[in-house]
Each structure stands twice: as structure tokens, then as C-alpha cells.
């Protein structure tokens, strides 16, 4: 059952009454045992420091019961949840509940169904996990952004041990389940260090459980803050201030919104619900965190004091953040955001319980604050606000001309927010503003970090001392890291032992978006005889079915197959011709079940693969454009275009490259557009994707965009790239959807795999196929699983050729691009087009399935 929500208007009096009631309840609960804590985190670098600081506290005082993950901010669900499991395993805390995601929705009328996953801001949440990135586009996708957070700069896989807990489809507890179970079990303090989506949904759906929430500690916002970064040096004559003096810290969007801080900006409407919930709140905004930067003295002390695994892990992350910082101002622009908040929370909880007032680490005062969710003039209805636009009755029972009814920022380049002649915007979405109106919530606010009481210490803040002491305590310390967990395991690279002067087949590059079908295709190519196929390199797309951090799965597959010699290039994370900050077209992929969370974990199976010594890393060098060289620049992750150039340079004069694409055509289009000679060395391109309408008016497969009836995912994920390649002079063989569907029988492939020898790779593929088939039968969210199975046809056709008895036809085609989402990516047969592509129209199914299974079962 869902709940139709009508939001109350909280008054200051109501807040005070609720606070008093909660205080009484708290006093009774305090005597019963340790104070229970629930942390909602976005697993950013500083969140890791906050988490480990909490885990190091004396459990007789403070007991972290659960962690829920905020998945619409700095990290992606699949990577974040397994990262968290590994940290908890290291710290011997597998007892802590972990919640992430969920596939519930909110109806157009405002009914909230169970287990809304928090993938989208509340204002944009519909009935699925498909949607845009109105606010999240402010967070970079690559260096310094989500890629580095998902991998912890590449440190995570080389350091953390791996336990038994992992993401498993349809079994992973959701964020809402964990919040409900934890808070309903007893009085709980909630700490929020990410967006507020998860907790706002909880409060709106289960208001009767508010009385069990003792206090909320929030890192976020800026009330009276003045940003100290982006300022011009004194006496500078040719410097333009950037963020200097802003309330907020949106370094990607200060020219449209100088007022918001990232955590609140990721979902302002949810933050408003939390602030106005009537629960006592302590806010740790930029006002306070700006006064506790990671200075050089603290950094050096941390470097000298790393006596536990958790201290080592935190320092390595912090050091890599410093070494890859975009300018030379790290020590004045990187602050203890979430970690300081955890310290403020612990100190207040301890002092409140002991009847003391004040906080050991921060100066506190009460203020009247609200969260701005829309911009004046109110009730303007300009198409930016789905809570009001096109509705006779506002969603959630909101007031027609109230504070939520104005223009809502549509993105970081919203023209409404621009001020002519100024580099500072006017939008206030997410601004934690001090007000005197009835809209105010009366909350406690940290205004400044307290200085260290020890004047002779090199540490100038009291919390610096507490943080380093806590992380280096022997009590509650981590059991081991990956090297001490497996002391006999060596990080060895495995390369094939080819016979000297052995005849090799045609050079091949596979360009993949890391869907499950792509990994089967990769294994199939690796099993092909070297005399037939010489796999030279792999390019991965970051704008397809998996986030780019999933490149580590590619490395693990290669390691399993003994092919650590094959280079892997990281491609773009956005479609051709679209902004580097954004999610154009990639937003058509579900973020929950059957989408990103499953692809990023290979449906829970990625952790069963052997762990490769190779992995994504943020290591870099000045030579490649970095502001400074890191400690191991030779480990730098190559880009897709660099791998292409390297392979091309190694070719003999008579050699040409065959390319297999099984994802959006972004990488190949970039190669063709950036390398004038690319076409002359590409012998043939096998393109898996596209849909050509037939006499039966068959439909495409983009089930998430019902208005686009004839597109196929790989084409729609980057229509301009598809147009660039398919309308070029390249020799192209197209494996369209109609052919893929003939190769998409789970029953047939599973039957064929039953009768072959069991190799590690055939067993892995068999397990993956069984899992996908089982999920498809169990839940409608997995109805499209056979779509991935059909993608393997491209690799099989490339290797087997005439052996599968193919039938093809030349067709002159063109691609619809830069039109509308309802028509982009569609293929049109255009007889006026002078170029044509070969289209695979049929093949022998029996031969196909037998050859796939037999190849995987070969012992070579």
C-alpha cells in the first residue's frame, strides 16, 4: 500500500514542543544503554573519514546500528554498497545493517509506495528509477567526481579486505527497509552526510516514527558562510574572483547558484522536509567547516600517525585527494566536512547525556533557518516545477502560491539563474537561509571550529587531535587489509606464452559498455584461437549500461583469462555533443534493479572473479595534463583514444584493425573525428545495435522511453555518434535488434552449456546466464534480460563468420539525431544515401548456440 502525503506547515512553536518531547524520551533511553546511531552517507572521501571515526568510538557509549546510502550524490549505488561492505568487514562490523536503493515510486497524485530508492530528487521522482539529473549534474562524472569516489581513487580494491557480504539482486536490503527497522527498534540519532532524499521519504511515509528520532545532525548548507576559495591574491591586477565570498560551494555552478552547498542542493525539497520535521536538529554548515581546512600541519601529523589499517586507508585517500587536486590550494580549500560533523555529533551526544552544555569541537548557536526550494516570483508555473506545473492541485497538498511554487533550477546552466553582466547567478535552490518568517525552523547551528586547547600542539583545531587519536586507537581497530588477509597472495600479472613467430589472426578491438552481454562477448573473443582473432585492446564506454568505474570488472575478466597484457582504455562518460556535466541520453537507463546497480556489480557476481592487480587508478602525471605527478604515474589509467593510438602505431604496414562495438558508438566516433587516418586502418566495424523496422512493424527495445517506439538502446545512448559512424565511409556490418532477438534464448544457451566441459569461464558464464534467466522469471523489472544475451551475436559472427550460415543484405540507412527523445536513435532506410551497410538478417541458431558453448568449454 502507498501513502498519499499532505505536508504540514511546521511552526517554531511546534518545533519546540516536539524538541521538548524528544528530549524527555531521550533522557529515558540514555540510561538503557549505548546511544544508537543511523548514518545516511553518500560515500564520498570525507564520508569515509566520518564513518571510520564513528566506528572507532566506544561501543558502550555509541553504537552505529545502520548505514543507508544516499545514491543521488557523489557515488553510485552498486560501487558504494560493496565499498561499504568491505569497510565494515575490515572493522569487524558485519552486524551493521546496510541499506541502499529500492525500486518503489511516487505516483503523480503523490502516493508514496514502499521502498522508494532515492535515486532521484523528490521533486522528480516518478514510479520508476529512470530520470534525469537536475541537481546531480553539478557533480563531475570523472576525475575528482563520481569515478574517483566509486573507486576511492583506485585505492579501495588494492587495500580493503573482502568479506562475504555483497550486493545481491532482489536480496539487498533497501534504504527504507533499513531506516524503518533501525528507527522502529528504539531511540536513534540520525546523522546525514549526503543528500536528504532517503530520510525525507522515511519521514513523509512513516511520521509516527518521528518520536523515535532523538536528534538529527546534518552536514550541509551555508547560513552566514563566506566561501574562502576562488579569491584573488592580494594586489592581483588580472584576477577575476570565482566562488569567493559565496554562501555556497557549488564550484561547477556558482555562476547560476552561488548560495547552495552540495548536500542540500542535491535535493532541496527533501532537505526542507527534514529541516521542518519538528525533530531537534544540529546543522554543521559551511560556516563551521570553512574554519577547519585540512592544513599542512594536520596532513603531516596524519602522515606520521597511521598505526591502524583504518588510519592508513583514510590517509591514502586524503593524500590522493591532495595529489590530484585541481590547483595548488588544497590546504586552504579542502575541509573536514563530514568528519567534523561526526565529531560534533559525538561530542554533543556525550555532553547531553552527561548533563553538560556546549560542544568540545564547535561553537554552537540557535538560528531560524529554512531551505529554499524555489525562486521568486512564486506561482509562476514556467515548466520548471513538476510539483505545480500543469496541475489543478499541487502535489503533496502544497500551497498554490507558497514557497515551493516558484521557478525550480533545471540544471547548472539554467538561463533563469543567469545575471547579465555578472559571473554570479541569482538562484537560491538549496540555500539554507536565515529567515524570520513563519517558514523558519529553529535549529542549532555550528558556527566555528574550536581551537586546540594545547597551544604547543602543531594541530590548531581541537577536533584534529580527537580524529587522529580515534583512528589510531588499538580498540575497535580493523582486523586486516587485503595484504594481511591473504599474506601469501602475490599480485602477479599473467600474460600468454605465445609461440615465437606464431601466426596470428586479424587484429581486433572491442568497444563495450560493460553490460552483462558484453562480458560474455569479451570472454568469447578471448577463447577464440589466436590464429583467428588477436584481441589487441578493449575500449569501455562510460555512457552506457554501467558506470565507468566498472572498468575494474574488465580487468578482473582479463586476469581470470590470463590476458593481463591487453590494454584497456577508458572512454567518455557523456554522449557526443553533450555537456561533460550531465546525463543526456544515459538517463534512459534504470538506476535501480535491472539497470546501473546490477551492471556495476555484474548482478552480484563481479566479486566472485579473481581480483586483478590492474585496476582503475587516479594516479597521473604532468606529462598527461595533471597539475602534478602522483607517486606512481606509470599506473595511470589510459584513455580510449590513447589505447587506439598505441595499437595503431604497433601495426605492420599491411595490417588493419577490425572493431566490434557493443554499446553506444561514442568511442569510435571520437576516434574517427580525432584521427584523420583512422578510416584507413579500420578494415571493418561490426556494430551491435540499431533497429530496422520490418513489414511486421516490429518495435525497438527502449522500454524506458515509451514514446520512442523504434529506437534501440545502443543508438539512443548516443545518436550523434551513431550518425557519425553509420553514415560514414567505413566498412560496416550491422547486427540489428531483429537478429539479436534470434540469439536471445536462455533455454537454448543453457541447454548447450550443460553439455560442455567445465572451465572457469564456462562455469562463470553459465552461472551468469542462470541468474539472468531466474531474475527475468521472478520480477518484471528484469523482463529485458534477454536483450543482453542477444548482444553476444556480434562477437560470434566476427569469429565464426560463415560457420553460423549467415545471411546479410546491404542497406542504405541514416540515423535520426538531435531531434527529440521520441525519435532520436531511430534508423531510417534512406535510398538516397550513397553509403550502405551490410545488415545481418539471419543465421543458423543451432550452429550459433553450439559454437558459443563449445568455445567456452574448450580447455585451451
From TrEMBL:
Keywords: Signal. Belongs to the IUNH family. Residues 37-375, 508-845 form the Inosine/uridine-preferring nucleoside hydrolase domain. GO terms for molecular function: hydrolase activity, hydrolyzing N-glycosyl compounds. This is Inosine/uridine-preferring nucleoside hydrolase domain-containing protein. It comes from the Eukaryota. InterPro entries: Inosine/uridine_hydrolase_dom, Ribo_hydro-like. It comes from Urochloa decumbens. Pfam families: IU_nuc_hydro. PANTHER family: INOSINE-URIDINE PREFERRING NUCLEOSIDE HYDROLASE FAMILY PROTEIN, NUCLEOSIDE HYDROLASE 3-RELATED. Residues 1-22 form the signal peptide.
